[in-house]
């Protein structure tokens, strides 16, 4: 069985839980309280020296970090990752774009608003706003012409972008302003074996 | 022939130029003055709506952005990308780590110090310093036990990390404090068909 070290509201951890569930791979959810410093403990740092969740332990005891790299690893050879060189490039392009040009704006704003105990970040939220608006506008343009992020089917590119986009309102970004993105959010949520971000913490069995 | 739209001091563009040269793929270097807004022009945004260099146009007229996705695309089927599922995961893990946990600290500090005309960023440079020190410490620990970033050979993981690491001094980070990283920098520079970041702009022929 897989073991997923994660924090409940994390979209990065949600990506991994969602794909595991859609691949019908059973996993155990292990809550890691990043606000209490649990990702900086010696035990955690031995697994991921970068001190970040999610960390996925495979049944073969491999220790994996970096959510989008984990998606590519799990999706290899499945319908969630296209096989042509061109489509794989597009998946990778969106995954790197998500980590550099989307997550630092949309996810980070949500984290600060969601966890006021982590400090007063009003200035930083304002600073990150233009980047978040730009990211959503890029997605809107793309999804106005395409049903999914890459090609004509659901892939890990959708999972990676869905994780924080569907909660953008919680970061102060009004998804209702982006009709194509909103329609895509509904399309992703309608995929077989979809689970919500809240449901990921249900998988605590052994 | 490939066409590479890039800015001379960009490490992200250098990654692509270095791999193209090492793969013996000829390319034309097209300088894009990002400080003069050339990456925000309608013509450029038609190629990359994200308004960032590098952009690579392939001989088949495919338009590629996101430097690390370009590395994976070009390296497919070559000795610069390992073939086992496990090693490919490690390459991807380092590539995503580079974009999220290394580049925003080390490259950004260098950009601000390198281009004082882009504004006064002393506060931001101080804010980014701990992240840069952490990234270099992680590389030092890894390279104290390994000659290369993944497995026992040179790969796109080395190219992606080398691009900004070898110029870390220009961002205020003293590479001399990291002996294993410094030895790896020399090892990468000694690879066949290596070109320096300055040499990438020489490829302006047609």
Automatic annotation (TrEMBL), chains A, B:
Sequence similarity: Belongs to the GST superfamily.
PANTHER family: GLUTATHIONE S-TRANSFERASE-RELATED, HYPOTHETICAL GLUTATHIONE S-TRANSFERASE LIKE PROTEIN
InterPro entries recorded: Glutathione-S-Trfase_C-like (IPR010987), Glutathione-S-Trfase_C_sf (IPR036282), Glutathione_S-Trfase (IPR040079), Glutathione_S-Trfase_N (IPR004045), GST_C (IPR004046), Thioredoxin-like_sf (IPR036249)
Entry's transmembrane regions: none
Start and end residues of each GST C-terminal domain: 84-206
A Pfam family annotated for this UniProt entry: GST_C
Protein known as: Glutathione S-transferase family protein
Top-level lineage group: Bacteria
Residues covered by the GST N-terminal domain: 1-82
